Every structure is written in structure tokens, then in C-alpha cells.
Amino acid sequence: MAHSSRGVPASRRARDSSCSQGSKGSSCVSSQSRADTEMLERILDKPKLVVVEEPKERGMRFRYECEGRSAGSILGTSSTENNKTQPAIEIHGPIDRIKRVTVTASLVTKDPPHRPHPHCLVGKDCPNGAGICVVTFNPHSSRRHSFTNLGIQCVKRKDLDGSLEKRRNLNIDPFQTGHSKGIEDMDMNAVRLCFQCELEWDDGRKDSLSPVMSNPIYDKKATTTSQLKITCLNLYRGPCTGKTEIYMLCDKVQKDDIEIIFRRGSWKACAEFAQTDVHRQIAIVFKTPPYQEQDLTEEVEVNVLLRRLSDQMESEPVVFTYLPYNPDPYEVKRKRKIKPDINFRDRPCATAAESTPAAEQTFPFSPPLTMMPAEDRLSAPQPGAAPRPEVFYPGPQDSNNDNDESAIINELLESPALREMFSDPNFAFTMLLGSEQADVNTMFANMDVNFNQNFGSQPQDFTHINDWQFNMLVNENQTPQADAEETPANIQVKMEEEL
User: Which residues of 269-289 are buried (b: 16+ CB within 10 A; e: fewer)?
Assistant: First the structure.
């Protein structure tokens, strides 16, 4: 017993001896147990800090201090054009004995370990140049607090170390990383909001809650973290076989960190393009992938979207329509099947007599000529010149029969006047004037025809002479030749135009 009492502390032995004496012993034990119970309840029912409104991840632009303008305000994820919201935190749990809550907001890196970030928070609740935001509120009035007018300000590379040194001096290191690493591996285009909460009890004691982080916030102007957006396509329809070349305009993208997805339900395919097909970070030339079904009977709509490989960020989709496969888009085969009204291969070529009007038909020989009386034709020939013949062509006859042509030739050859014309060797040369005579002489000289040779009752061949030559020969032979010496000088020739 002495050994056991020797090992118990003196204060405990005195408390036990005093509590064991009289009726006061029971009250002393109850007060001690009550204090221990309250301490246990305070530990178990300790409040916790919760982010009830996350910041909007995209659309916030980080601005430099030298830009000389406000850094803007971080909006909440549920913010709309008509209803603006801000990031907000809230105290959950029992707050009966909590007198005051102090929350310190700072920026940490997006990836773990979450170290202090050199970029700064600026706003009305931010101490000048500190880069952090400190707010104090009474939880009995409102458990929730919204961070209004809170912006993010960039720090130049030459000032990064100085900005981190300020955080060390303020003892801002929520996750106790010790600032051991440098800034070479930090992502300067993405940050997180970190909230540290300190509770002040009514008895003056202070407790610190575990730090809470928000979702990442990405810089709007950075191509590696900016929001993806398809502006337009030059084609929104194409065959289901794919390989349709399309031009896409979009917001800035990285050529080695982007892909184009075609999606419908469980089906998904990637467009075909190379890094060289990404032009100035705002245009992509690609070819559509083939659709999963090639035997489409109707049009199918699919979604086209951009996706970043690094963070799997996707853009809002646009609709593209796959068309059923058409092997003959220009309908060449259909047009070939249409039989034309006129088939030139089946019909024989039209003859000259059928295709030429009757008034324009020509014949190898003219029909019998109608001559004017001699006294009307040669009333007064001019001295030294032979009168010009007057020839009247009859109207065309509607006949193409070879028998009619032979009959006309035989009738002309049996005429006595024609025989007398051919017997005169100078019948064609004395009837023409000037250049006309020379032309006719040349013409007849080239013909080299002897009309008197073998001329008799047998029909002669005049097929090589045209109509005009033959008619002229017949008319000149029938015209009486008058010698220039025997022709009176006062006789005048009336032309056909004067009659």
C-alpha cells in the first residue's frame, strides 16, 4: 500500500483525501467530470468551414499592377448576367460559445503540394501589398460570408521571390509546405483560393480550423487554361463516309494540346488533322471521321467539340449532320438513263433537198429559158461594143428526177439555135465587155472544151458546166451578131433597168 501511495502524485493524494472527507467529496467529483465533458463536447462538436459558393473557373483574367486598372472581381460558379454571385464560405456546427470568426484568404498552387502562390489577392478587404484577404464576422449574425470585390493580380517574374517572401513574413503557409521548392514548376495561369479560419470563444480561447481550398481558377488570357470555344464552321453537313475537309474558327488553342471530337450517344471519333493544320491558334483545318453506320437512309446529327488534352477541358458543342452515302452526287447515271426526244444516231442524215427549202434549191441545169424579142433587147447597140444579154430565169421547178434532167438536156441539144451557137468559135468572146470578157476568157480557157469536136446528133456531156455558164452560152448563141461597121451610130441600147 505504501508502494502504491508513493507512486501517486502529491496533488492527487491531497485532492482525493479532501474529496473523501465529508459530504463535499461528491460535489468535487461532479464538477471535474462536468469540465471534462464540456471539453470533450467542444472537441467533438467543433465547427467546420465549408465553401458554399465555388469561384467561377473560367472567364477571370489575371491583370498586372502596371495595367493601371482594377483586377476585376471573382464571380461565383452560379453567377449569371442578371444575378451576380461571389465566392462564399459558411460556418457549420454549434456556434453557441463562439464570439468571433476570422477568415484569411490567400492563393495557393493548383497542384499538390499546395504551396503559397506568388500572385496576389486585391480588394477592399486586402491589406495594401500583403496579397491576402482578411475578414472578421459574428457567426450569430450570419454564418455565411461572401467575398465581394476580390480580384487576382499577376506578379512579374522578377518579383516572384519578393512576393513569396512577404507570405513567409506573414506566416501564410496553410499546408506547412515550408517554402522548400522554387517557382520553376509552378503554373502561373492557375490558382486556388485557400481559406484559413480562426475561432474565438467567449472565454478568450482561440482555435484554428483546417484550411479549405476552392476549385481552380484559370487565367482567361492563357491558351493553356483558357475556355475553349468554337466560333463557326464553313460546312455543317457532309457524307457519312467522312473525309470532308472543314475549316473551323475558334478561340486560341495550343496545336499540341487540342483535339476535335465527334460524338453521338456512345459513339465517339476524332477528327483528322496535324499540328501544321492549326493556323495562328485560331483556325483548324480538319477532315471529318466516318460515321459508325455507312448504310444510312436518313440524316444523322452529331456533336462536334474541342477538347484540351492536358486538363480534358471541353468546349460547347456545335451540330454537324451526316448525310447518307450517294455514289453519284452529280446524278450522271440518272441523266444517262433519260432517253432524249431526238436520237441522232438512229435517224439517217437528211438530204440536201429535204433540208433546203424549195425556193433555195439549185439544179445542175436550168429549165428552158424565156427570151425577149430581139427588137426590145437590142434596139440601138452602142458603137464598138456588143450589147449585154438579158437573161430571165424562170421560177424553180419542183422536180428532182433524173429522167426530167435528161429530157431537158436532150431538148436543148436538138435545138437548131444551139447547134448554130456551137458552130461559131467566137460566140462567147464578142458578147462580153471589159474585165468581164477577160474573166470569161480565162474561165473558158481553163475549161479547155472544144464544142465543135465530135458535135453531132449524139448528146454531149455538159455536167462539168454550171448553170450560169450554160445559160450564158445558150443566150449568146440566140442573140444576132451585128458588125460594128453596119450598126448605125445613132442607135442606143436600152438596158433592162430602163424598160
Answer: bebebeeebbeeeeebbbbbb
CA distance 260 to 262: 7
Say whether domain 48-218 belongs to CATH 2.40.70.10: no
Sign of torsion over alpha carbons 241, 245, 246, 251: positive
Q: In CATH terms, are 48-218 and 230-323 the same topology?
A: yes
Contact 73, 86 (CB under 8 A): yes
- The arithmetic mean of pLDDT across residues 235-262, rounded, is 94
d(CA 366, CA 233): 78
Whether a cis peptide bond, with omega within 30° of 0, leads into 113 is yes
Q: Are strands 318-323 and 237-239 parallel, antiparallel or unpaired?
A: parallel
Q: Is the pTM of this model over 0.70?
A: no
Domain boundaries, the chain: 48-218, 230-323, 365-478
pLDDT in tens, 142-181: 999 999 889 999 998 888 888 888 888 888 999 988 765 6
Ranges of beta strands (E only) in 155-211 are 190-201, 206-208
pLDDT (0 to 100) of residue 464: 63
Mean pLDDT across the stretch 457-483? 63
Q: Are 63 and 69 in contact (CB under 8 A)?
A: yes
Residue 138, CA distances (Å) to 39, 101, 102, 147, 198 in order: 23, 6, 9, 15, 12
Mean pLDDT of the chain: 75
- State CA 294 to chain mean position distance: 24
The answer to whether 149 touches 73, Cβ cutoff 8 Å, is: yes
Q: Which three cell numbers stand for residue 363?
A: 439544179
User: How many residues are listed for the chain in this entry?
Assistant: 499
Query: 3-state secondary structure string, 68-107?
Result: CCCCCCCCECCCCCCCCCCCEEEEECCCCCEEEEEEEEEE
Distance CA 191, CA 416 (A): 128
Q: Which CATH number applies to 230-323? A: 2.60.40.10
Whole-angstrom Cα distance, residue 388 to residue 377?
A: 9
Element holding 378 (H helix, E strand):
none
Task: Name the grid cell of 52.
Answer: 458554399
With vertex at residue 427, the alpha carbon angle to CA 422 and CA 433, rounded to the nearest 5 degrees, is 155
Beta bridge partners, 51, equal 89
- The DSSP 8-state label assigned to residue 323 in this structure reads E
Nearest to 173 by CA among 208, 145, 137, 219: 208
CA–CA separation, 145 vs 138, rounded Å? 10
Residue with cell 440566140: 478
Mean pLDDT, rounded, for 101-114: 92
Name the phi and psi angles at 71, rounded to 5.
-80, 0
